Model the fold of this input.
Amino acid sequence: MKKNKNRIIENIEILDFAAEGKCIVKNDGEVIFVEGSNVCPGDEVKMVVSKSKKKFSEGRILAINKFSKDRIEPFCSHFGVCGGCKWQHIPYEKQLEQKQKQVFDQLTRIGKVEIGEIIPILGSEKTTFYRNKLEYTFSNSRWLTNEEVNSGKKISKDALGFHIPKRFEKVLPVNKCYLQGDPSNAIRDFFRDYAHDSGLPFYDHVAHQGFFRNVMIRTASTGEIMVVLQVADEDTSKIEEVLNALVEKFPNITSLNYFINKKRNDSYFDLEPVNFYGLPYITEEMEGLKFRIGVKSFYQTNSEQAYNLYKIVRDFAQISEDDLVYDLYTGTGTIANFVAKKANRVVGIEYIEAAVDDARINSELNGIENTSFFAGDMAKIFTDEFISQNGKPDIVIADPPRAGMDKPVCELLLRIAPKRIVYVSCNPGTQARDLAILSEKYEVEKINPVDMFPHTFHVENVASLILKS
Ligand code: SAH
Done:
């Protein structure tokens, strides 16, 4: 009976956190990983076991019967429904401890990596209002809370806010978000009120019709503000009316843009933005360097912590003036440009061509002449031939996406054997896998986890690898 599917367990204690925002419970020796980052170790829950495997099972929380004494009061009224800031009920110190433990466990258990030194995780000074970018979605299918459903009151179905996890068409109406500083909340409220008052329809994500689709707000430490509105209607007079009203209310917006998107998906990478007012970009500054951020450009979303992360990377890389440095997965070339002053030459490689264009612009903007950037899929472009054309790196910095590095990339690194590799990762699981491959020639001298995203389970880890003698 024990291992059948959809078994309900009435009352069981959450024992500990596990990787990827999951938690762990034990039921008569059976290890069960549960979805649900809204819980806290010490909570007693009702749960369902949905899958049983040989070594462990998986399940979902149905209800929390009793709260752990370790919980703290969440600061946001949307806690529990919204997909962001899911760890608000965990004290920040505990979050950091947990993230550090996750990195250590993944590296030592999965990767069987020996780590020379573990530098304690660097917490984010700002734990709220730390993001420089948010995207809000308009929907005519508002998420209703149980109280709203039970109140019997007539409530507008329109909402501007965040998608509900796993219920894509449903949108949680956000009245205050703690992720992005002023004037982010006020700009969102402006659009919500304007949309309601004008009668222009909020988007229908099932029928694919409506006017207002979404709005992106970007803020920079320079005080510059970018707003990008996405509409599904070509009537430019209506668009101009909204945007003029916005500028009148927020004259400090420095870059105002829109997309007309009549496709079924929200992605704008295949669309051309229209610059309505101000410049088509904003500028971020870091240690006197300027970074231009266009409508479609990638930039680390926690700018202050990104600076701390880059300083750790630069410190770990120990670049000297004769060194040829490769920055793999360079994005818009931020790290490449950040370290260029110390190096003889820096080569950046990145998949998205528009990002490579930004990387070049960023070098030019800062008078940096010793960088070159190449666009292509890493496994295809980073080859022996590429090395023979561009030189053998002394130092490699790599900041791959969550999937980690492709095996051929690790294998080429082993063949060319740079004296040092600095591996920045947003997924300790795949980093562990890659470090295990690289351990053939490299030892992990030290690691330094960094928290870029307080109140989430995400963790960044920087590892310094040195060639074994
Ligand atoms: N270091 C950069 C961002 C790195 S994010 C910064 O700090 O700003 C990871 C980058 O890897 C993204 O820009 C993504 O487009 C790129 N990428 C993902 N898969 C890739 C692949 N297969 N080949 C090359 N680049 C890839």
